[in-house]
Amino acid sequence: EYEYRNEGDNVRESFDIFQDVSIPADHYRFGYHTLDFRSARKRWFSWGMEYTTGQSFYGDQERYELDGRVQLTRNFSLSMDGEIDSRKYPITPSPTGNHGGDFTAKLARFRATYSFNPDMYVSSFLQWENESDLMSMNTRFRWTIQPERELFVVLNLGGYRGTRTVIQRDTAVKFAYNWRF
Predict the structure, then answer these.
(1) Which residues pair with 99 in a beta bridge?
(2) 3-state secondary structure the chain
(3) What phi, psi does 6 have (nearest 5°)?
(4) Where are the domains of the chain?
(5) Could you read off the pLDDT of 18-64 as tens digits, one per residue?
(6) Does the structural domain 2-177 have CATH classification 3.40.50?
(7) N or C: which end of the chain has fewer CB within 10 A?
(8) CB count, 10 Å around CB of 1?
(9) CA-to-CA distance for 19 and 86, rounded, in angstroms?
């Protein structure tokens, strides 16, 4: 599939888009060309890839995305996806400092889902991105006890890749019960 998008953005204040790369305030027009290839999601193995190129904040952008999903059994599936986004902006001096610069953002995600039955499943999601080098995990358990009665247990963890230091840890338990009048 091919797609062309023409968009705009009115940036009122300069902002940092990545480490040491800032975008000055201005009115911008973007033009993107995207090629997208996908297989059928109904099969035991599915995949997709996408390539995008175009203008972004007076600079050039190239983005590559790749994803895959494997349905190992009727109840268990694994999926992965990754993205590499390279951008090059011209360096422009300003009273507040130089704007522009080059960067490459990388993102990787992994998901595992197991369904015990149609009413109960557990799903884990793991993500890494290169700007902060953080790994984060979200695990959810959902049980529909009866229609309109559900139990949710969620665990979130986050830390720097390559260390055993956890900088974020959250747990939530929710029981949802609906009354009908």
Answers:
(1) 92
(2) CEEEEEEEEEECCCEEEECCEEECCEEEEEEEEEEEEECCCCCCEEEEEEEEEEEECCEEEEEEEEEEEEECCCCEEEEEEEEEEEEEEEEECCCCCCEEEEEEEEEEEEEEEEEEECCEEEEEEEEEECCCCEEEEEEEEEEEEECCEEEEEEEEEEEECCCCCEEEEEEEEEEEECCCC
(3) -120, 115
(4) 2-177
(5) 887 888 888 888 899 999 999 998 899 999 999 999 988 888 999 99
(6) no
(7) C
(8) 8
(9) 13
Residue 35 and residue 63 in contact, taking contact as beta carbons nearer than 8 Å: no
Joined tokens for residue 82: 């990754």
Q: The tokens of 125 are what? A: 């999601």
Residue 170 has pLDDT above 90, yes or no: yes
